[in-house]
């Protein structure tokens, strides 16, 4: 579904991504782990071109989205993204947050968009929050709403950028549960996270990144129990 | 202190105050229009536009309002009609409003730019990640939030304009300051008319900032 070829990213003099090749198949849950500063968030943000790659190609559903000829806005509609800081729109209600993009981009009527939003909210048990503003929600609720906001566009793939890192520990579980459910439903997901439990349990493949490169990739059981690369061993020894 | 002169001269203060308010309203209105354009130019990715806007803001903020007023009033022969509307000589009023609004526009531009740039980067990223175009994101996500930062500061700019507009009295616009000087000259008494003027300016600005504070609190409680 997504093919990454020879991806490089520079921020000024800083060489953050040093040649990444990866592919993500439909229905896979790819978990990206690695120390901070390893470039894993930048890698994820390159997938929907929130960061413009300096070099390399991203092929999404057979289309080279890094090419200037293709309108990235159309492909972003099919790639949902969830951020560490939630980034809900504070001036809109929960309902407004979820229905804005479907109404503006998919020409859904207000009723259709709201019905769809309510169905999604029901799935995460937050339908009573539809008229609330983001400032009235807890961190865990905000992040679950942010997931629903992305799902409302019916994306083909969901990108998660450290979705639980800004949460109080007792709220991490509720967000991971929603993500797990999503994975069980067959959603293609790319997840950058420090939650090794989630990687092990839900991931279909784990990528270990360090210093702008993918050093190792394997099924979770294999990577966690039998890491090959010395850097992976060192990292896992510290976090597990 | 003897304020008995007010019985004979109150009309001067009354029309002066009215003219000052009219002057300030026109200035703020035009200043906001100029400021919006300059702000959008300044944050645009077009280097030429952004340079022009920056130069404008820096030049206006770096030179005295009085010099700007004199350049426009004496330096540029404007084809303004020699008519009087509401007791104000348009050949003086129009250049006066122009100078004030060109000046205010630079400050408004900075207010608007700061208001837009104060919005967290994540808001634009979240909007774009959903597939919204840059202009849609601006319209539905960034500007509505920026407006909340901008409106209170714009109110303060209105207060500033009411006070700063007194400078146009030196080119003969019959505002509150000008009429106060007329009364002062007629009475040969400086203190009392000036105190009346100061009090009126204070009432205008104080009432306005109280009203703005109230509006701001109401806006805050909306979220």
Tags for this model:
heterodimer; A: 240 residues; alpha/beta; six-stranded mixed sheet; four-stranded antiparallel sheet; 38% helix; B: 223 residues; mainly alpha; MetI-like fold; two-stranded antiparallel ribbon; 8 helices; 2 strands; 79% helix; elongated
Mind summarizing the main beta sheet of chain B?
Answer: 2 strands, antiparallel
According to DSSP, the number of beta strands of chain A is 10
Q: Span from first to last CA of chain A?
A: 31 Å
Uncertain segments of chain A are none
Element order of chain B: H for helix, E for strand:
HHHEEHHHHH
Global mean pLDDT of chain B:
91
Q: If strands are numbered along the chain, what order do they take across the biggest sheet of chain A?
A: 6-7-8-3-9-10
Can you characterise this structure?
The complex is a heterodimer of chains A (about 240) and B (about 220). Chain A has about 240 residues and is α/β, with parallel strands linked by helices. Chain A has nine helices and ten strands. In chain A, the strands form two sheets. Chain A has a six-stranded mixed sheet with strand order 6-7-8-3-9-10, sandwiched between helices. A four-stranded antiparallel sheet of chain A has the order 2-1-4-5, with helices on one face. In chain A, helix 3 (about 95-105) packs parallel to helix 5 (about 140-150). The model of chain A has no long low-confidence stretch (mean pLDDT about 95). Chain B has about 220 residues and is mainly α. Chain B has one domain (about 5-220): MetI-like (MetI-like fold, Orthogonal Bundle), CATH 1.10.3720.10. Chain B has eight helices and two strands. Chain B is elongated, with a radius of gyration of 21 Å. The interface of A and B includes residues 75, 101, 104, 150 and 153 of A.
């Amino acid at each position: 579904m997504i093919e990454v070829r020879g991806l490089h990213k520079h921020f000024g003099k800083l060489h953050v991504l040093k040649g990444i090749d990866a592919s993500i198949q439909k229905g896979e849950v790819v978990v990206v782990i690695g120390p901070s500063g390893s470039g894993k968030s930048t890698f994820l943000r390159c997938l929907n071109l929130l960061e413009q790659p300096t070099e390399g190609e991203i092929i999404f559903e057979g289309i080279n989205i890094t090419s200037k000829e293709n309108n990235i806005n159309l492909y972003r509609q099919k790639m949902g993204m969830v951020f560490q800081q939630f980034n809900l729109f504070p001036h809109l209600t929960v309902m407004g947050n979820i229905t804005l993009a479907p109404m503006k981009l998919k020409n859904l009527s207000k009723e259709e968009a709201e019905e769809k939003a309510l169905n999604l909210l029901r799935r995460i048990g937050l339908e009573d929050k539809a008229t609330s503003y983001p400032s009235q929600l807890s961190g865990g609720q905000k992040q679950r709403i942010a997931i629903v906001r992305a799902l409302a566009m019916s994306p083909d793939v969901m990108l998660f950028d450290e979705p639980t890192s800004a949460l109080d520990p007792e709220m991490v579980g509720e967000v991971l549960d929603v993500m797990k459910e999503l994975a069980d439903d067959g959603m293609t997901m790319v997840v950058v996270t420090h939650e090794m439990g989630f990687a092990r349990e839900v991931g279909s493949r784990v990528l270990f990144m360090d210093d702008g490169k993918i050093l190792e990739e394997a099924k979770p059981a294999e990577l966690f129990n039998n890491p090959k690369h010395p850097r992976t061993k060192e990292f896992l020894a510290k976090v597990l | 202190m003897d304020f008995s002169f007010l019985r004979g001269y109150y009309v001067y203060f009354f029309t002066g105050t009215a003219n000052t308010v009219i002057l300030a309203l026109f200035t703020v209105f035009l200043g906001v229009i100029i400021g919006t354009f300059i702000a959008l130019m300044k944050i645009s990715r077009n280097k030429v536009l952004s340079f022009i806007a920056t130069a404008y803001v820096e030049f206006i903020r770096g030179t005295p309002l009085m010099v700007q007023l004199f350049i426009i009033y004496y330096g540029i022969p404007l084809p303004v009609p020699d008519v009087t509307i509401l007791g104000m000589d348009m050949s003086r009023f129009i250049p006066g409003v122009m100078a004030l609004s060109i000046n205010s526009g630079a400050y408004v531009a900075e207010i608007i730019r700061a208001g837009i740039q104060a919005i967290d980067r994540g808001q634009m990223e979240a909007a774009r990640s959903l597939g919204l175009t840059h202009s849609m994101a601006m319209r539905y996500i960034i500007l509505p939030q920026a407006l909340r930062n901008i409106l209170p500061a714009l109110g303060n700019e209105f207060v500033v304009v009411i006070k700063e507009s007194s400078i146009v009295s030196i080119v003969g616009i019959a505002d509150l300051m000008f009429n106060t000087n007329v009364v002062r000259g007629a009475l040969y008494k400086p203190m009392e008319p000036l105190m009346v003027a100061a009090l009126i300016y204070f009432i205008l600005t104080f009432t306005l900032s109280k009203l703005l504070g109230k509006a701001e609190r109401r806006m805050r409680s909306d979220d």
